[in-house]
């Protein structure tokens, strides 16, 4: 990976992705031994700038940096920072680059990470920009898929909030590099946005759209479920019309193939019945755990580019 | 003297924009940031007959020669426009309108959640596609009503 920043999945070639995943596998194996890892970045400080709530992304980046021997500084919540005083994002990141060697940014506005990357000389990772992109999640999703089902000749169904789901936008874009067969299942009002459909079309991707999961479930190797995000809807009534429309339980999965892998970027609300958690199909907790080795690999590559 | 010449007389020095899509002249002026406050002459004819377009608009801007970059931006809303640079009543240069690869600072992103619509020191940038424009920040695509998104007024 030659980029200085990771702001969108479209930046990543197949070779870039494979390089990150291969490195992640090395870290995964090293972590599994339980032995201390060599401190590759003992003097390195990573800034965590989260303008929106986060559990997995923030904590896994923090863990990843610390496992690499570095440390983190956390801007804290928006209420506790100068953002509350009206400071622009551009000013904030210019200040923070004086404190840290890299910036992980989550922001409610689309394009925030790309703009931030134009104002600083340290690497910027987009950890979610509104309903835009979440490319580091995509890398751990691809790692999980590769481990569970393989990335060659993959048939994947992506279900739920495809309009506002940033993990979906990034994953779909990245999967074009692997010639995956993609089925998108959503209510009509939550179809993929025009920009993502444009990218898939330009890439010649094999794509079908559905409104019912049972049309496609038996064909799938991977079922990627997403939460319908109440916080992204401009209108509560529109949310209520589609809330709870796709709920996956044991009865749903009875129609699936034997080797289905069920994934979810989490948090879930009611999209996946907890009765599935202990089945062989469920991979979403493993997926979340993969956030650490994959983000170690991503940081390693970005920081080594920057040295 | 023909009707056409009566409507818009010759200018001594400046730029003549002809074959503008009928009804788009005011958008063209907005795009070029011309609002009359410059104090120089601006003539506008709208929806005049045209053999080629049916109807067309014509704009004559005195004492200002448009650059190629300005001409190319016009292609977004007036793709068939012709541009003549005039000196001492004579056409000294004809510029072709060509679609630029990208445009900066002339359009506002229609996505209200785009970072360019926040209070940030950032200039809007759009990549020009075959059939639309794409925000370089939020990746939103505009296909229809491009003139509605002009960032200048």
From TrEMBL, chain A:
<dbReference type="InterPro" id="IPR002082">
    <property type="entry name" value="Asp_carbamoyltransf"/>
</dbReference>
<dbReference type="GO" id="GO:0044205">
    <property type="term" value="P:'de novo' UMP biosynthetic process"/>
</dbReference>
<comment type="similarity">
    <text>Belongs to the aspartate/ornithine carbamoyltransferase superfamily. ATCase family.</text>
</comment>
<feature type="binding site">
    <location>
        <position position="85"/>
    </location>
    <ligand>
        <name>L-aspartate</name>
    </ligand>
</feature>
<feature type="binding site">
    <location>
        <position position="137"/>
    </location>
    <ligand>
        <name>carbamoyl phosphate</name>
    </ligand>
</feature>
<keyword id="KW-0808">Transferase</keyword>
<feature type="domain" description="Aspartate/ornithine carbamoyltransferase carbamoyl-P binding">
    <location>
        <begin position="5"/>
        <end position="147"/>
    </location>
</feature>
<dbReference type="GO" id="GO:0006207">
    <property type="term" value="P:'de novo' pyrimidine nucleobase biosynthetic process"/>
</dbReference>
<feature type="binding site">
    <location>
        <position position="134"/>
    </location>
    <ligand>
        <name>carbamoyl phosphate</name>
    </ligand>
</feature>
<feature type="binding site">
    <location>
        <position position="266"/>
    </location>
    <ligand>
        <name>carbamoyl phosphate</name>
    </ligand>
</feature>
<feature type="binding site">
    <location>
        <position position="227"/>
    </location>
    <ligand>
        <name>L-aspartate</name>
    </ligand>
</feature>
<protein>
    <recommendedName>
        <fullName>Aspartate carbamoyltransferase</fullName>
        <ecNumber>2.1.3.2</ecNumber>
    </recommendedName>
</protein>
<feature type="binding site">
    <location>
        <position position="57"/>
    </location>
    <ligand>
        <name>carbamoyl phosphate</name>
    </ligand>
</feature>
<dbReference type="GO" id="GO:0016597">
    <property type="term" value="F:amino acid binding"/>
</dbReference>
<dbReference type="GO" id="GO:0004070">
    <property type="term" value="F:aspartate carbamoyltransferase activity"/>
</dbReference>
<feature type="binding site">
    <location>
        <position position="56"/>
    </location>
    <ligand>
        <name>carbamoyl phosphate</name>
    </ligand>
</feature>
<comment type="subunit">
    <text>Heterooligomer of catalytic and regulatory chains.</text>
</comment>
<dbReference type="InterPro" id="IPR036901">
    <property type="entry name" value="Asp/Orn_carbamoylTrfase_sf"/>
</dbReference>
<feature type="binding site">
    <location>
        <position position="166"/>
    </location>
    <ligand>
        <name>L-aspartate</name>
    </ligand>
</feature>
<dbReference type="Pfam" id="PF02729">
    <property type="entry name" value="OTCace_N"/>
</dbReference>
<dbReference type="Pfam" id="PF00185">
    <property type="entry name" value="OTCace"/>
</dbReference>
<comment type="function">
    <text>Catalyzes the condensation of carbamoyl phosphate and aspartate to form carbamoyl aspartate and inorganic phosphate, the committed step in the de novo pyrimidine nucleotide biosynthesis pathway.</text>
</comment>
Automatic annotation (TrEMBL), chain B:
<feature type="binding site">
    <location>
        <position position="114"/>
    </location>
    <ligand>
        <name>Zn(2+)</name>
    </ligand>
</feature>
<comment type="function">
    <text>Involved in allosteric regulation of aspartate carbamoyltransferase.</text>
</comment>
<dbReference type="InterPro" id="IPR020542">
    <property type="entry name" value="Asp_carbamoyltrfase_reg_C"/>
</dbReference>
<keyword id="KW-0665">Pyrimidine biosynthesis</keyword>
<feature type="domain" description="Aspartate carbamoyltransferase regulatory subunit N-terminal">
    <location>
        <begin position="6"/>
        <end position="98"/>
    </location>
</feature>
<dbReference type="InterPro" id="IPR020545">
    <property type="entry name" value="Asp_carbamoyltransf_reg_N"/>
</dbReference>
<dbReference type="GO" id="GO:0016740">
    <property type="term" value="F:transferase activity"/>
</dbReference>
<dbReference type="InterPro" id="IPR002801">
    <property type="entry name" value="Asp_carbamoylTrfase_reg"/>
</dbReference>
<keyword id="KW-0862">Zinc</keyword>
<feature type="domain" description="Aspartate carbamoyltransferase regulatory subunit C-terminal">
    <location>
        <begin position="103"/>
        <end position="144"/>
    </location>
</feature>
<keyword id="KW-0479">Metal-binding</keyword>
<dbReference type="GO" id="GO:0006207">
    <property type="term" value="P:'de novo' pyrimidine nucleobase biosynthetic process"/>
</dbReference>
<feature type="binding site">
    <location>
        <position position="135"/>
    </location>
    <ligand>
        <name>Zn(2+)</name>
    </ligand>
</feature>
<keyword id="KW-0808">Transferase</keyword>
<dbReference type="InterPro" id="IPR036793">
    <property type="entry name" value="Asp_carbatrfase_reg_N_sf"/>
</dbReference>
<dbReference type="Pfam" id="PF02748">
    <property type="entry name" value="PyrI_C"/>
</dbReference>
<dbReference type="GO" id="GO:0046872">
    <property type="term" value="F:metal ion binding"/>
</dbReference>
<protein>
    <recommendedName>
        <fullName>Aspartate carbamoyltransferase regulatory chain</fullName>
    </recommendedName>
</protein>
<dbReference type="InterPro" id="IPR036792">
    <property type="entry name" value="Asp_carbatrfase_reg_C_sf"/>
</dbReference>
<dbReference type="GO" id="GO:0009347">
    <property type="term" value="C:aspartate carbamoyltransferase complex"/>
</dbReference>
<feature type="binding site">
    <location>
        <position position="109"/>
    </location>
    <ligand>
        <name>Zn(2+)</name>
    </ligand>
</feature>
<comment type="similarity">
    <text>Belongs to the PyrI family.</text>
</comment>
């Amino acid at each position: 990976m030659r980029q200085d920043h990771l702001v969108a999945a479209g930046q990543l070639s197949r070779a870039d992705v494979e390089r990150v995943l291969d490195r992640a596998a090395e870290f995964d194996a090293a972590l599994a031994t339980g032995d201390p890892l060599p401190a590759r970045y003992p003097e390195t400080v990573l800034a965590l700038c989260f303008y929106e709530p986060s559990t997995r992304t923030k904590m896994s980046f923090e863990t990843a940096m610390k496992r690499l021997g570095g440390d983190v500084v956390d801007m804290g919540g928006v209420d506790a920072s100068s953002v509350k005083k009206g400071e622009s994002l551009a000013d904030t990141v210019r200040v923070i680059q004086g404190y840290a060697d890299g910036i992980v940014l989550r922001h409610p506005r689309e394009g925030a990470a790309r703009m931030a990357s134009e104002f600083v000389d340290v690497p910027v990772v987009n950890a979610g920009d509104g309903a835009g992109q979440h490319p580091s999640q995509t890398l751990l999703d691809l790692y999980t898929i590769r481990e569970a089902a393989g990335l060659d000749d993959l048939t994947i169904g992506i279900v739920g909030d495809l309009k506002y789901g940033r993990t979906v936008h990034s994953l779909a874009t990245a999967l074009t590099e692997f010639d995956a067969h993609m089925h998108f299942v959503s209510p009509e009002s939550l179809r993929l946005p025009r920009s993502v459909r444009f990218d898939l079309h330009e890439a010649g991707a094999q794509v079908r759209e559905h409104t019912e999961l049972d049309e496609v479930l038996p064909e799938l190797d991977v079922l990627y479920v997403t939460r319908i995000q109440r916080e992204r809807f401009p209108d509560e009534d529109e949310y209520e019309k589609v809330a709870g429309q796709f709920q996956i339980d044991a009865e749903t999965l009875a129609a699936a193939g034997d080797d289905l892998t069920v994934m979810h970027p989490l948090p879930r609300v009611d999209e996946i019945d907890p009765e599935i958690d202990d089945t062989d199909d469920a991979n979403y907790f493993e997926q979340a755990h993969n956030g650490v080795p994959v983000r170690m690999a991503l940081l390693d590559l970005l920081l080594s580019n920057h040295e | 003297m023909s009707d056409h010449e009566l409507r818009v007389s010759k200018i001594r020095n400046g730029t003549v924009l002809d074959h503008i899509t009928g009804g788009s002249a005011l958008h063209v002026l907005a795009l070029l940031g011309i609002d009359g406050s410059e104090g120089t002459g601006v003539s506008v004819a709208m929806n005049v007959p045209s053999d080629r377009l049916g109807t067309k608009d014509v704009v004559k801007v005195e004492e200002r020669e448009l650059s190629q970059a300005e001409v190319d931006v016009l292609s977004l809303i007036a793709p068939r426009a012709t541009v003549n640079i005039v000196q001492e009543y004579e056409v000294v240069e004809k510029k072709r309108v060509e679609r630029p690869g990208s445009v900066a600072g002339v359009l506002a992103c229609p996505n209200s959640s785009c970072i360019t619509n926040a209070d940030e020191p950032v200039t809007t940038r759009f990549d020009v596609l075959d059939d639309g424009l794409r925000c370089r920040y939020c990746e939103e695509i505009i296909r229809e009503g491009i003139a509605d998104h002009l960032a200048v007024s």
